[in-house]
Amino acid sequence: MSSFWPTPEIFNKLDELQTKADANAVKLDELRNQVTEAVKVGITPAEMIGLENKLDAMDSDLAYQLKVGLYFQKLSQTASFYVNLPKADKAELAAGFTKLVSGLNEQIKALAETQNMYAKAFEPVADPTTTDKDNDLVNDAVDNCPVTKNPDQKDTDKDGYGDACDHDPETPNDGGNGSGEDGTPGDNGNQTPADTDKDGVVDSSDNCPNTANADQKDTDGDKTGDACDTTPVSNDPWVIKYNDLNTKFNDYDNDYDDFKDKYKEAKDDDKEKNIKKYKNKLEDLDDDLNNLEDDVDDLIDDVEDANDNDEYDALLDDLDELKDDVSELRDDIDALLNGKKATLSADSQSSFSLPSAAPAQPNVVIEPLTFTAPAVTGAAAVTAAPTTSWDELRYLLWMTAGIIVLIAVIWFFVALLMRK
């Protein structure tokens, strides 16, 4: 639904993002200078790995910052965002986020040029007679860790296995650590499993072994992480359908924010023509949401029928949340146009009616209680007056007696005070 930020908080957020972007601009200049210098004077394998890591880290950092910047830029362009801010503040924030996104795109472009310059200068030349599985510029024939990057080839215990892949790098001859016949780490149970991209997930379990992605996010469930998947969006028809419905709802949500503001403005200005115009738009939007709600229900039914192995539990949760959002938005439209009202059941609504302005009969008829004495015969028969209510008369008598007693007590205390 709509987002609301206090004025100081949102301005602070813009300043924070811009400060980070400025700091990265400085880092980017430094990195470009390092690459330029490396191209001129050369670079060792160890320095090459360090420079690659810096380029990758900068790439990830800028990608994340751009994602955040685009999020706020999109929000700043919606009608409901910052509704509590003056127009001047809205314009300043929108311009600020647009400038931020533009600057980040320029930085990403500059980084891509730097990466291209680095790749052209230091791209390894393929040699069909040699192999280098870990791409550390040390041929497998002489590499003491053939599947784990270690261009320095450090081997503290001098046992022929580099520290990078040695289970115990300070104990020589500790079980013949190293890769097995097929080059897979840990074949003999001693070597630490390789983690080529250093993201904390070993290569054997990493869905992007050469690209850091600690979250292992795999949107389309094809066992290839989004970070290295050329088509990370799911090809599952139901997931695609959900994404389409969710996108449609977000569009309707934005339309509602726009129509709501203009409808309220028309009512404040008492412009009948605009009131009618945006009322019609809101009613049409409610019809669209009703159709969307039906589509969501149909998709839920289809997915539930095929969810034998709980494969689509997460999708069903997303669909339930989408359905709630649609229902809530329809309630907002109803409240805006008709005012908030209690929800009655169908039976209650059919039988409930307000009293007319001048009812012919009172809503509640109070009839006197009738006392029926036991039947008696003979001279002792007594007929009770039908209009007399003994309970009411007895109540009045007790009330009168009580008042008299209370007055007497008050006079008694007054008399005592007077005698003193």
Describe the structure.
It is elongated and about 120 Å long. Among the domains are: 7-122, Up-down Bundle (Methane Monooxygenase Hydroxylase, Chain G, domain 1), CATH 1.20.58; 237-342. It has helices at residues 7-41, 45-76, 87-122, 237-268, 272-305, 313-338, 346-351, 390-419. Helix content is 55%, strand content 0%. Helix 4 runs parallel beside helix 6 and helix 5 packs antiparallel against helix 6 (313-338). The model is unreliable at 175-191 and 341-388 (pLDDT under 50). With 420 residues, it is an all-alpha fold.
Helix content: 55-70%
Low-confidence stretches: 175-191, 341-388
How confident overall, as mean pLDDT? 76
CATH 2nd-level architecture of the domain at 7-122: Up-down Bundle
* Percentage of residues in DSSP E strands: under 5%
User: Regarding CATH, which class of the domain at 7-122?
Assistant: Mainly Alpha
How much is the radius of gyration in Å? Answer: 41 Å
Tally of strands: 0
Distance between the termini: 78 Å
Shape: elongated
Total of DSSP H or I helical runs spanning 4+ residues: 8
Order of helices and strands: HHHHHHHH
Main beta sheet, described? none
What structural category do the secondary elements indicate?
Answer: mainly alpha
In CATH terms, what is the fold-level topology of the domain at 7-122? Methane Monooxygenase Hydroxylase, Chain G, domain 1
